[in-house]
Design a protein that fits this description.
Chain lengths: 158, 748
């Protein structure tokens, strides 16, 4: 199979890669660009562990082809902290014990940030429905909701 | 909630940030699938498409001939195992003569790319002879049922039963007939629970590298790297010292990562190809070929006086842990009535083979099913006798001195305090609306200790490195560091705890049985005491006094007795700084088999609303009460209580393995196997009780498993009360509830 050359921006940095026509964006991020923060939990768009933003839109990177991201801007968990400082969401997840095993955490952080970028003051119900595509098997979601709300409050106050 | 006087702590009981927190929120933490090696090959596994089939032949020649294929392996590449347990684990990793379930591994390839590996799988020619199959536990017990594996029955099984029945046990005491004769009301019901999967979000993954001289390295996501070493070295014929296993960060396990599936296969592929091999399971493979819990069919009979005192109870449990023998039903039989002080109790327990994947442990294995059945009958008795379900449980609750239903006499336990906390909680008296119901259930788990080994190095800059051997599955590195800080009297942030590979520390049992915070914590405390003794000796040497005349107070050696006040205290950092001049590096160590893990009880309260038009259940409110002995890091104790409760809610309402008439799994994905999502749930409130475990210096009990036990009955009792129909089968998915409501309405 012929590979395809793609030029894109990941977390603000220009990156180039070649990939097969059947290769997912998740595989490209993990195997070609060395960004293993996004995880494959299912490969079918059901678990959200591979969540990234594509031109600002929240997507499951396992359902996007690498070849599709020519000229796009991609945001992954590796880009959430800026210049070494944790994003309020990241700090809140640590402070509120919102992670146990941590495998879903990158996807949930990307998804939660995408929500707060649109809606800085979500209700718990809005938040729970927004995160319904991100499975967490450890926490029962309780502390995740608390952490996102705490971060949202901090971000609104900033 | 504090229930008594006990020692005061400086670090234990606080909520510091976890040491792996930043790695996990930035994407830096390395899980099973996150590492690669130069020259690495992709390994893939070929699986049986049949529920039950004889493997007539496996022809790998075409696959081997494909350009880019570097190795193909079958069961012939493993060493024959004499021991039943080892042989079963090996047989589950690669089948020899029979495929025992849909998804059973039969061969594997390693190739230069995933595409080539996929193409190679298609070139492996397996000739099967299909055999009749059985996936239902009751059907598998019938004498004429298809036999999954012959000759596996233990002598505990009476003659004349199906060869699928591999094990029978009984537990209990007292005279059942006399007990039932004293009852004012006897309720006897049958129940079923579906097999459910642990549902960890991280699929199994490993990277194996083995050289021609028999040295091997294995990186994998596991709950126990030492057990992986034991199993893999046996299968590959390696000496334990030559196989170094490193546990990656683990993306959930819940018991399901306590054994091996792909790890020995990757090693065999690496040995054959001479290159590193990485295998990562797909979600489909995880569902089809890794351990779900048992499916169960159960009959429970309980007699009660009209005042609510249990007079007798019996349970007949039939569990199937899939195609291989398992003793999980014993734990169900032992746990079933553990919450109650009973004069007459007996459980009759059967394990049955079916053409399903080999069971792996899932959080309190065997207990949720049996306790669901018992607590459902308890609730029905309370309803029929018009008694308060918490009062009845309080009236019958086991306490210190109670002869438990499974043999031992209980020491200090927290069941009564937990029930009382539930009773006075505002949740219990909150009003319910139309169509709503409230359910409760008690739950129990044994907890374990086990083989444990910890090393603690006192660094010359006054910091401390703790090396332990149990993968951190829910924040245990934080709690271990906290206990080290408490015992040494130094700040938490001076300590870093790491998980050793198998070559760097002695054996540690698997992270299971809610054992880590208890047993590794205890070993850490003892290792700290060992280090303290050595530091006191160093100070004594510097002061020129007797070692015995030095005490450790608040992180420093101080002269005691006749020497009190003669020298200023010498801190850990001061002693460490001069250690090279006083005898060399300082380290503490402790290795032991930890006993004294205190049992754990929990009580869950839950409110639901059921839509009679659709059969859908909404959980409105949920509160978990549990005795933690001593909560070392309360946030992570709450996390265990919340996470376990939600797994139990999923089990009660939606999760199930669904088999077609062809014996194949029909819902091997998260779309059709529906685990709870954030929008399904309310807040999960928690109340931690602290009734100290006499077997631990801080009173710690394991907390991880108990919380999955009560939700099944709590939900079923709530739903049954909400719709006025007693539910007897899990999951209570919308179609099942709807069918029950329609049948009930048609009759009315």
């Amino acid at each position: 199979m012929k590979t395809i050359h793609v030029s894109t921006k990941v977390n603000g940095d220009t990156m180039e890669f070649v990939c097969g026509p059947d290769e997912s964006l998740l595989d490209v991020l993990r195997n070609r660009l060395g960004l293993t923060g996004a995880k494959e939990g299912c490969g079918t768009g059901d678990c959200g562990a591979c969540s990234v933003t594509l031109n600002g839109r929240l997507v499951c990177s396992c359902l996007v082809l690498g070849a599709e991201v020519q000229g796009a801007e991609i945001g992954t968990v590796e880009g959430i902290a800026t210049e070494g400082a944790l994003h309020p969401l990241q700090q809140a997840f640590i402070d509120h014990a919102a992670l146990q095993c941590g495998i879903c955490t990158p996807g949930i952080l990307v998804a939660a940030k995408a929500l707060l970028d649109r809606n800085p003051d979500p209700t718990d119900t809005e938040l729970r429905y927004w995160l319904a595509g991100n499975l967490c098997r450890c926490t029962g979601y309780d502390k995740i909701i608390t952490a996102v709300q705490a971060a949202a409050q901090k971000m609104r106050a900033a | 909630m504090d229930t008594g006087t006990k020692r005061t702590f400086k670090v234990v009981g606080t909520r510091p940030p976890r040491p792996d927190g930043i790695d996990k929120v930035t994407g830096r933490a390395m899980y099973g699938a996150d590492v690669s090696a130069p020259g690495m090959l992709t390994g893939l596994i070929l699986r049986s498409p049949h529920a039950h089939a004889e493997i007539m032949s496996i022809d790998t020649s075409a696959a081997e001939a494909l350009q880019g294929v570097k190795a193909v392996v079958t069961s012939k590449d493993f060493v024959y195992q004499d021991d039943d347990y080892f042989r079963d684990v090996q047989e589950n990793c690669l089948a020899t003569t029979k495929a025992l379930y849909d998804g059973h591994a039969v061969a594997a390839v390693a190739a230069v790319s995933p595409a080539v590996a996929k193409a190679a799988l298609k070139l492996i020619k397996v000739t099967y002879r299909k055999l009749p199959h059985v996936t239902d536990v009751d059907a598998a017990m019938r004498p004429d049922a298809p036999v999954v594996q012959d000759g596996r029955s233990l002598e505990t099984v009476p003659a004349g039963m199906s060869a699928n029945v591999t094990h029978h046990s009984e537990f209990g005491h007292g005279n059942l007939a006399a007990g039932f004769a004293k009852a004012d009301l006897i309720v006897e019901r049958s129940f079923t629970t579906a097999a459910t999967h642990q549902g960890y979000i991280e699929p199994h993954a490993c990277l194996a590298s083995m050289t021609a001289d028999g040295k091997a390295d294995l990186w994998c996501c596991t709950q126990g790297q030492y057990n992986v070493r034991t199993l893999c070295s046996a299968m590959l014929g390696l000496e334990a010292s030559q196989l170094r296993v490193t546990a990656s960060e683990i993306g959930g396990g819940f018991g399901g990562k306590t054994t091996v599936f792909i790890e020995p296969v990757a090693l065999a592929l690496s040995r054959k190809s001479g290159k590193p091999v990485k295998i990562v399971m797909t979600r489909d493979e995880v569902f089809k070929a890794t351990g779900p819990t048992v499916c169960a069919s159960m009959d429970v009979k309980i007699g009660m006086t009209k005042e609510g005192r249990i007079t007798a109870g019996e349970a007949h449990l039939r569990y199937s842990g899939g195609a291989f023998p398992t003793g999980t039903v014993d734990m169900g039989g032992q746990a079933a009535f553990a919450a109650y002080d009973m004069g007459a109790v007996r459980t009759f327990n059967w394990n049955v083979l079916t053409n399903r994947p080999k069971e792996a442990a899932y959080r309190a294995p065997g207990a949720p099913q049996a306790i669901y059945a018992v607590e459902s009958v308890m609730d029905e008795l309370c309803q029929k006798l018009n008694l308060d379900p918490l009062d009845v449980r309080l009236k019958n609750a086991a306490k210190k001195g109670t002869l438990s239903s499974y043999g031992p006499t209980f020491d200090d336990i927290g069941l009564i305090a937990t029930l009382e906390a539930a009773k006075k909680h505002p949740h219990y008296s909150a009003p319910l609306g139309e169509g709503q119901g409230r359910g409760l259930s008690a739950g129990f788990w044994f907890n374990f200790g086990g083989n444990t080994c910890v090393t603690m190095n006192i660094n010359t800059d006054g910091t401390v490195s703790v090396t332990e051997g149990n993968p951190d599955i829910g924040g245990s590195r934080a709690s271990i560091s906290m206990m080290a800080a408490e015992e040494l009297g130094v700040p938490y942030d001076k300590i870093r705890t790491i998980i050793a590979d198998t070559a760097s520390l002695g054996h540690n049992d698997v992270t299971d049985g809610s054992r880590v915070t208890f047993a590794v914590g205890l070993a850490t405390i003892k290792a700290a005491q060992d280090a303290v003794k050595k530091m006191c000796a160093r100070a004594a040497k510097l002061w020129g006094i007797d070692e015995e005349a030095v005490e450790w107070v608040d992180g420093a050696a101080v002269p005691a007795g006749d020497n009190a006040g003669k020298f200023p205290p010498m801190s850990l950092a001061e002693i460490a700084a001069v250690s090279f001049q006083t005898g060399g590096p300082i380290a503490g160590h402790h290795e032991f088999h930890a006993d004294g893990a205190g049992v754990s009880f929990g009580v869950h309260l839950c409110d639901v609303e059921v839509d009679r038009e659709t059969g859908a259940t909404k959980v409105l409110r949920y509160t978990v009460f549990q005795d933690a002995g001593k909560a070392v890091h309360p946030s992570y104790v709450e996390g265990q209580m919340q996470g376990g409760a939600v797994q139990g809610i999923g089990w009660a309402l939606n999760e199930e393995y669904i088999y077609g008439v062809d014996g194949r799994l029909q819902n091997a994905g998260f779309l059709d196997y529906r685990v709870p999502v954030a929008s399904d749930l309310p807040k999960i409130d928690t109340v931690i009780l602290e009734i100290p475990n006499p077997g631990h210096p801080y009173g710690v009990r394991g907390v991880g498993e108990t919380p999955i036990v009560p939700p099944l009955a709590a939900l079923s009792n709530a739903v049954s009360r909400a719709i006025g129909i007693r539910m007897q089968s899990l999951p209570m998915s919308p179609p099942r509830i709807l069918a029950a409501v329609m049948a009930h309405d048609a009759k009315a």
